[in-house]
Design a protein that fits this description.
With 272 residues, the chain is mostly beta strands. It has one helix at residues 93-102; strands at residues 18-26, 30-32, 35-36, 42-44, 48-49, 56-59, 69-74, 77-82, 85-89, 107-113, 122-126, 134-141, 146-153, 163-165, 175-176, 183-185, 191-194, 206-208, 215-219, 228-229, 236-237, 244-245, 251-258, 264-271. It folds into 2 domains: 18-165, no CATH class; 175-271, Jelly Rolls (Sandwich).
Length: 272
Protein backbone atom coordinates (compact mmCIF):
# COMPACT_ATOMS: atom_id res chain seq x y z
CA UNK A 1 0.00 0.00 0.00
CA UNK A 2 1.30 3.46 -0.92
CA UNK A 3 2.25 5.69 2.03
CA UNK A 4 2.34 9.46 1.50
CA UNK A 5 5.94 10.68 1.92
CA UNK A 6 7.26 14.13 2.80
CA UNK A 7 9.20 15.42 -0.22
CA UNK A 8 11.67 17.45 1.85
CA UNK A 9 14.91 16.56 0.07
CA UNK A 10 15.38 18.07 -3.36
CA UNK A 11 16.84 15.94 -6.14
CA UNK A 12 19.67 17.10 -8.38
CA UNK A 13 18.43 19.54 -10.98
CA UNK A 14 21.32 18.97 -13.38
CA UNK A 15 21.00 16.89 -16.54
CA UNK A 16 20.58 13.17 -15.93
CA UNK A 17 23.30 10.86 -17.27
CA UNK A 18 21.87 8.81 -20.14
CA UNK A 19 23.35 5.85 -22.01
CA UNK A 20 24.13 6.15 -25.72
CA UNK A 21 22.41 2.78 -26.25
CA UNK A 22 18.62 2.49 -26.21
CA UNK A 23 16.87 -0.87 -25.79
CA UNK A 24 13.75 -1.62 -27.86
CA UNK A 25 11.38 -4.58 -27.64
CA UNK A 26 8.47 -5.57 -29.86
CA UNK A 27 5.43 -6.04 -27.62
CA UNK A 28 4.49 -9.18 -29.54
CA UNK A 29 7.88 -10.75 -28.73
CA UNK A 30 7.44 -10.40 -24.95
CA UNK A 31 6.13 -13.44 -23.08
CA UNK A 32 5.71 -11.69 -19.72
CA UNK A 33 6.27 -8.27 -18.17
CA UNK A 34 7.79 -7.56 -14.76
CA UNK A 35 5.19 -6.34 -12.29
CA UNK A 36 5.31 -3.02 -10.46
CA UNK A 37 5.52 -2.76 -6.70
CA UNK A 38 2.74 -1.23 -4.60
CA UNK A 39 4.08 2.29 -5.16
CA UNK A 40 3.68 1.93 -8.91
CA UNK A 41 7.15 2.84 -10.21
CA UNK A 42 9.75 0.17 -9.34
CA UNK A 43 9.48 -2.87 -11.62
CA UNK A 44 10.02 -6.26 -9.98
CA UNK A 45 11.34 -9.22 -11.99
CA UNK A 46 12.58 -9.49 -15.57
CA UNK A 47 11.16 -9.20 -19.05
CA UNK A 48 10.81 -12.73 -20.43
CA UNK A 49 10.92 -13.01 -24.21
CA UNK A 50 9.16 -15.64 -26.29
CA UNK A 51 11.29 -18.49 -27.65
CA UNK A 52 13.65 -17.25 -30.35
CA UNK A 53 12.75 -13.59 -29.75
CA UNK A 54 14.98 -10.90 -28.30
CA UNK A 55 15.42 -7.19 -27.65
CA UNK A 56 17.51 -4.95 -29.89
CA UNK A 57 19.77 -1.93 -29.28
CA UNK A 58 19.97 1.40 -31.07
CA UNK A 59 22.92 3.78 -30.63
CA UNK A 60 21.93 7.44 -30.24
CA UNK A 61 23.51 10.82 -29.44
CA UNK A 62 23.07 10.76 -25.67
CA UNK A 63 23.38 14.55 -25.30
CA UNK A 64 20.30 14.96 -27.52
CA UNK A 65 18.12 12.34 -25.80
CA UNK A 66 14.90 13.83 -24.45
CA UNK A 67 12.68 12.03 -21.92
CA UNK A 68 9.76 14.38 -21.26
CA UNK A 69 6.72 13.57 -19.13
CA UNK A 70 3.47 15.52 -19.30
CA UNK A 71 -0.08 15.21 -17.99
CA UNK A 72 -3.22 15.99 -19.95
CA UNK A 73 -6.99 15.72 -19.64
CA UNK A 74 -9.98 17.16 -17.83
CA UNK A 75 -10.79 17.18 -14.12
CA UNK A 76 -10.78 13.64 -12.70
CA UNK A 77 -9.72 12.35 -16.12
CA UNK A 78 -5.98 13.06 -16.30
CA UNK A 79 -3.62 10.74 -18.17
CA UNK A 80 0.18 10.69 -18.32
CA UNK A 81 2.15 11.03 -21.54
CA UNK A 82 5.85 10.05 -21.67
CA UNK A 83 7.24 10.12 -25.21
CA UNK A 84 11.03 9.72 -25.54
CA UNK A 85 12.97 11.25 -28.42
CA UNK A 86 16.39 10.19 -29.73
CA UNK A 87 18.79 11.62 -32.28
CA UNK A 88 20.56 9.10 -34.53
CA UNK A 89 23.49 10.54 -36.52
CA UNK A 90 23.78 9.59 -40.18
CA UNK A 91 21.42 7.34 -42.11
CA UNK A 92 22.93 3.87 -42.49
CA UNK A 93 21.28 1.02 -44.35
CA UNK A 94 20.83 -0.87 -41.07
CA UNK A 95 19.00 2.09 -39.55
CA UNK A 96 16.77 2.59 -42.60
CA UNK A 97 15.89 -1.11 -42.63
CA UNK A 98 15.13 -0.94 -38.91
CA UNK A 99 12.68 1.93 -39.45
CA UNK A 100 11.16 0.15 -42.45
CA UNK A 101 10.48 -2.99 -40.43
CA UNK A 102 9.60 -1.45 -37.03
CA UNK A 103 7.16 1.24 -38.19
CA UNK A 104 3.63 0.41 -36.98
CA UNK A 105 4.92 -2.08 -34.42
CA UNK A 106 3.92 -1.86 -30.75
CA UNK A 107 7.13 -1.04 -28.91
CA UNK A 108 8.58 -0.86 -25.40
CA UNK A 109 11.65 1.39 -24.94
CA UNK A 110 14.24 1.38 -22.15
CA UNK A 111 16.91 4.03 -21.48
CA UNK A 112 19.63 3.45 -18.90
CA UNK A 113 20.36 6.42 -16.65
CA UNK A 114 22.80 6.99 -13.80
CA UNK A 115 25.48 4.63 -15.16
CA UNK A 116 28.23 7.27 -15.26
CA UNK A 117 28.78 7.56 -11.52
CA UNK A 118 26.88 9.34 -8.78
CA UNK A 119 24.07 6.85 -8.43
CA UNK A 120 22.89 3.32 -8.98
CA UNK A 121 22.01 2.80 -12.66
CA UNK A 122 18.54 1.75 -13.74
CA UNK A 123 16.41 1.84 -16.88
CA UNK A 124 13.56 4.27 -17.44
CA UNK A 125 10.91 2.13 -19.10
CA UNK A 126 8.47 3.59 -21.66
CA UNK A 127 5.43 1.82 -23.05
CA UNK A 128 3.20 -0.83 -21.48
CA UNK A 129 1.31 -3.86 -22.66
CA UNK A 130 -1.90 -1.83 -22.86
CA UNK A 131 -0.31 1.42 -24.08
CA UNK A 132 2.76 0.64 -26.22
CA UNK A 133 4.75 3.17 -28.22
CA UNK A 134 4.89 3.61 -32.00
CA UNK A 135 7.81 5.07 -33.99
CA UNK A 136 7.45 8.43 -35.73
CA UNK A 137 10.52 9.42 -37.79
CA UNK A 138 11.80 12.88 -38.71
CA UNK A 139 14.88 12.85 -40.95
CA UNK A 140 17.31 15.60 -41.95
CA UNK A 141 19.61 15.30 -44.97
CA UNK A 142 20.93 18.64 -46.23
CA UNK A 143 24.04 20.81 -46.33
CA UNK A 144 24.02 21.15 -42.55
CA UNK A 145 23.69 17.56 -41.38
CA UNK A 146 22.47 14.03 -41.96
CA UNK A 147 20.58 12.77 -38.94
CA UNK A 148 17.30 11.20 -37.87
CA UNK A 149 15.08 12.18 -34.98
CA UNK A 150 13.33 9.08 -33.68
CA UNK A 151 10.13 10.11 -31.90
CA UNK A 152 7.40 7.96 -30.39
CA UNK A 153 3.65 8.28 -30.03
CA UNK A 154 1.41 6.53 -27.50
CA UNK A 155 -2.00 6.28 -29.10
CA UNK A 156 -3.63 4.62 -26.08
CA UNK A 157 -3.78 6.78 -22.96
CA UNK A 158 -2.38 5.54 -19.66
CA UNK A 159 -2.22 6.59 -16.02
CA UNK A 160 1.25 5.07 -15.54
CA UNK A 161 4.50 6.99 -15.11
CA UNK A 162 7.58 5.48 -16.81
CA UNK A 163 8.78 2.54 -14.73
CA UNK A 164 12.20 2.00 -13.14
CA UNK A 165 13.65 -1.32 -14.29
CA UNK A 166 16.79 -2.89 -12.78
CA UNK A 167 16.70 -6.27 -14.54
CA UNK A 168 18.39 -7.48 -17.71
CA UNK A 169 17.32 -7.97 -21.32
CA UNK A 170 17.45 -10.92 -23.70
CA UNK A 171 19.53 -10.04 -26.75
CA UNK A 172 20.39 -12.13 -29.79
CA UNK A 173 23.24 -13.87 -28.00
CA UNK A 174 23.97 -14.63 -24.37
CA UNK A 175 27.42 -15.43 -23.01
CA UNK A 176 27.79 -19.21 -22.80
CA UNK A 177 29.18 -20.61 -19.55
CA UNK A 178 31.52 -23.61 -20.04
CA UNK A 179 30.29 -27.08 -19.12
CA UNK A 180 31.07 -28.10 -15.52
CA UNK A 181 32.08 -24.54 -14.55
CA UNK A 182 31.76 -23.85 -10.83
CA UNK A 183 32.33 -20.11 -11.30
CA UNK A 184 30.78 -17.82 -13.90
CA UNK A 185 33.10 -15.29 -15.55
CA UNK A 186 31.04 -12.12 -16.08
CA UNK A 187 33.76 -10.12 -17.83
CA UNK A 188 31.27 -9.32 -20.61
CA UNK A 189 29.35 -7.14 -18.18
CA UNK A 190 25.71 -6.91 -17.17
CA UNK A 191 23.48 -9.20 -19.17
CA UNK A 192 22.61 -12.84 -19.63
CA UNK A 193 24.82 -15.90 -19.10
CA UNK A 194 23.65 -19.22 -20.51
CA UNK A 195 24.42 -22.25 -18.35
CA UNK A 196 24.88 -25.68 -19.93
CA UNK A 197 23.97 -29.21 -18.91
CA UNK A 198 26.94 -30.61 -17.02
CA UNK A 199 28.65 -33.99 -17.01
CA UNK A 200 27.93 -34.35 -13.30
CA UNK A 201 26.43 -32.53 -10.33
CA UNK A 202 27.73 -28.94 -10.44
CA UNK A 203 27.41 -26.17 -7.86
CA UNK A 204 28.19 -22.58 -8.84
CA UNK A 205 30.16 -20.96 -6.04
CA UNK A 206 30.89 -17.46 -7.35
CA UNK A 207 30.76 -14.93 -10.18
CA UNK A 208 34.19 -13.61 -11.18
CA UNK A 209 35.27 -10.28 -12.71
CA UNK A 210 32.03 -8.62 -11.64
CA UNK A 211 31.53 -4.86 -11.48
CA UNK A 212 29.91 -3.09 -8.55
CA UNK A 213 26.18 -2.57 -9.29
CA UNK A 214 26.42 -5.00 -12.22
CA UNK A 215 23.24 -6.99 -12.89
CA UNK A 216 23.67 -10.56 -14.14
CA UNK A 217 21.06 -13.10 -15.22
CA UNK A 218 21.85 -16.82 -15.25
CA UNK A 219 19.78 -18.84 -17.72
CA UNK A 220 19.04 -22.42 -16.77
CA UNK A 221 20.06 -25.25 -19.09
CA UNK A 222 17.81 -28.06 -17.98
CA UNK A 223 19.10 -31.54 -18.75
CA UNK A 224 20.34 -34.27 -16.44
CA UNK A 225 22.79 -32.16 -14.43
CA UNK A 226 21.77 -28.49 -14.33
CA UNK A 227 23.94 -26.24 -12.19
CA UNK A 228 22.69 -25.12 -8.80
CA UNK A 229 23.42 -22.26 -6.42
CA UNK A 230 23.13 -23.06 -2.73
CA UNK A 231 21.60 -20.53 -0.36
CA UNK A 232 24.24 -21.46 2.22
CA UNK A 233 26.96 -19.98 -0.02
CA UNK A 234 27.91 -16.62 1.51
CA UNK A 235 28.87 -15.21 -1.91
CA UNK A 236 25.14 -15.13 -2.69
CA UNK A 237 22.20 -13.70 -0.80
CA UNK A 238 19.25 -15.74 -2.03
CA UNK A 239 15.67 -14.60 -1.47
CA UNK A 240 14.06 -16.60 1.31
CA UNK A 241 17.32 -18.56 1.73
CA UNK A 242 16.14 -20.89 -1.04
CA UNK A 243 18.52 -22.73 -3.39
CA UNK A 244 18.26 -22.12 -7.14
CA UNK A 245 18.48 -24.83 -9.78
CA UNK A 246 19.17 -24.11 -13.44
CA UNK A 247 16.22 -25.99 -14.88
CA UNK A 248 15.09 -25.39 -18.46
CA UNK A 249 13.51 -21.93 -18.65
CA UNK A 250 14.71 -20.93 -15.18
CA UNK A 251 16.31 -17.50 -14.72
CA UNK A 252 18.15 -16.00 -11.76
CA UNK A 253 19.03 -12.31 -11.71
CA UNK A 254 21.49 -10.98 -9.15
CA UNK A 255 23.10 -7.61 -8.44
CA UNK A 256 26.72 -7.19 -7.37
CA UNK A 257 27.50 -5.28 -4.17
CA UNK A 258 31.10 -4.59 -3.20
CA UNK A 259 32.33 -5.84 0.16
CA UNK A 260 35.67 -5.65 1.98
CA UNK A 261 38.75 -6.37 -0.09
CA UNK A 262 37.12 -5.53 -3.41
CA UNK A 263 35.11 -8.76 -3.49
CA UNK A 264 31.41 -8.85 -4.29
CA UNK A 265 28.33 -10.42 -2.81
CA UNK A 266 25.49 -11.17 -5.23
CA UNK A 267 21.98 -10.31 -4.07
CA UNK A 268 19.03 -11.99 -5.77
CA UNK A 269 16.73 -9.56 -7.57
CA UNK A 270 14.38 -12.07 -9.14
CA UNK A 271 13.99 -15.66 -10.29
CA UNK A 272 11.65 -17.57 -12.56
Amino acid sequence: MYTNPNILVKGKGSAENKSFEVVLMDLNDIASFPSRDDNGILMVGNFVMKAGKYATKMQVSSSKTSLPVTSEGEEDNVSISALPEFSVPGSTQDFEEFIQNWTNRSIVVAVQVGACGGGTPFYRLYGTRCAPLSILLEGQNNNDATMNLVKFQQFAKTDLMPGRYTGTFTFATATTVPVDATTVDVTNGSGEYQLQDNAGATVITDLTNAETDGVYTLLGSGGSNPATIEASNTNFLMAGAVDWQGLSGAMLTVKAFEVAGGDHVFVEISRT
